[in-house]
Specification:
7 helices; about 425 residues; globular; 5-stranded mixed beta sheet
Length: about 425
């Protein structure tokens, strides 16, 4: 394999097998990645002429901005229940996005009985149960409280569920792993409202209920509610979109999505969990010994290469900026290693700032492809030393009867013709 070189002729050795190069090369001056532009002795005169867009007045102002008409293919991947259209999910197209913030209109969806149409003037949040002061809040009264913001990932507990299958499903990063998104959520710290209600000493649980037709309810430990839980009113600076909980939702940084109840209407303090369908029959994890893991709130450390990845074809040999996303429900991502030979050798990727706790971290590494078969993988480690496991290890520990909390290393196979597909490795 050819070595990378700088303008002064210095040779740079690969950081790992399979064509991976040192992450710090992105910062080197005089680095030659290859000529991606069409080089010539001179620029043709017609390319210097004014374009049609420069000769015609543009469109007028709009009340609310929309994507370019040339970006209409940038959509969520919808997987709805054929019998009940309001039950199912839509996935964020991870492979089509850059940076770390998910646009509100592309945030993944998971609904149990459709998106309710709620008049904010009539909506109320009730706090009751084992409290000294039952409370009822209108949206306008909640907006008078001090607010804070969390930029954090929300990931469905069932994200990447196909990883538990015996054979690898095919698709893009978004269609296989897109039940995860990262937004800035702004609202009232839940601890402020609970302090005002004065829960009883033994009220160790908060039962949250949504105002949708499913009336989804779920149990939240009081400790989390008093820690970093947020009653969110805004997403990425604007009122929360209807499909993501308008006019208000719970945000519990680092925890599985089902606990972050949308269209929130009621918080009941209790000395015990409610043991609802979504914490008994569902969102539990059957283990090889026949037992089941329950209340598995926190999401594990995870990463996925988003480009180049499944559904993509490399049309030219040469250098690529291999990129992906990493996150952890326990805190900050400390490092991401990347392999191009199925985990035999690894190279450390560059972590792009900012690196925030419980939020997406974008990683990149230069990669040289010369037509050889390659198995691309990423492996994240968080600040507490938790490392993304191999699929073999995860299956050995938890079997294949489960559906939730799959966070094993994800593998993309690059064929000599440039096509990339999903494999288990």
């Amino acid at each position: 394999m050819k070595s990378l070189h700088t303008n002064d002729g210095a040779v740079i050795a690969p950081a790992a097998d399979g064509g991976l190069l040192d992450r710090r090369l992105f910062l080197k001056k005089g680095l030659v990645f290859g000529t991606f532009a069409l080089a010539s002795d001179h620029i043709p005169a017609e390319e210097l002429q004014r374009t049609a867009a420069m000769l015609t007045p543009g469109a007028p102002f709009s009340g609310y901005g929309q994507p370019s008409p040339f970006e209409q293919g940038l959509l969520r991947n919808v997987a709805a229940n054929a019998a009940v259209a309001g039950n199912g999910a839509s996935m964020t197209p991870l492979e089509r996005l850059a940076g770390t913030l998910t646009p509100s209109g592309l945030h993944f969806e998971r609904h149990h009985n459709g998106v309710p149409k709620i008049d904010p003037a009539l909506h109320r949040l009730i706090i009751h149960g084992k409290v000294a002061k039952p409370l009822s809040f209108s949206l306008e009264r909640l907006k008078r409280y001090p607010m804070t913001s969390h930029l954090c990932v929300i990931e469905c507990g069932g994200n990447s569920f196909s990883g538990w299958h015996k054979e690898a499903m095919q698709g893009t990063p978004g269609s296989l792993h897109g039940l995860v998104s990262c937004s800035e959520w702004t609202g009232v710290p839940l601890s402020l409202l609970l302090h005002e209600a004065e829960p009883a000493a033994d009220a160790d649980w908060i039962i949250a209920e949504g105002a949708d037709a499913a009336a989804l309810n779920i149990s939240i430990p009081r400790a989390k509610a008093m820690d970093d839980a947020l009653l969110a009113l805004y997403q990425n600076g604007e009122a929360i979109r209807p499909e993501n909980g308008y006019p208000m939702r719970l945000v519990l940084p680092g925890w599985e999505g089902v606990t972050q109840v949308k269209w929130l209407r009621r918080l009941e303090t209790s000395d015990r969990p409610v043991m609802s369908r979504n914490e008994t029959a569902k969102y539990t994890e059957l283990q090889p010994d026949g037992s089941a893991r329950q209340f598995t709130f926190s999401m594990g450390v995870k990463s996925v290469i988003t480009a180049p990845a499944g559904g993509y074809r490399l049309t030219e040999q040469g250098y690529y900026s291999l990129s992906g996303l990493a996150w952890s429900g326990q805190g900050r991502v400390a490092s991401v290693d990347v392999s191009a030979d199925g985990g035999k050798t690894w190279a450390e990727a560059e972590l792009c700032a900012p690196v925030l706790p419980k939020a997406y971290t974008r990683f990149r590494i230069p990669w040289q492809w010369q037509g050889q078969p390659a198995t691309l993988q990423s492996r994240a480690t968080d600040e507490h030393g938790n490392m993304q496991p191999t699929r073999a290890r995860l299956v050995q520990e938890r079997g294949q009867a489960g559906y939730f909390h799959y966070n094993a290393i994800i593998s993309w196979q690059v064929e000599p013709d440039g096509y990339i597909h999903h494999i288990f490795a």
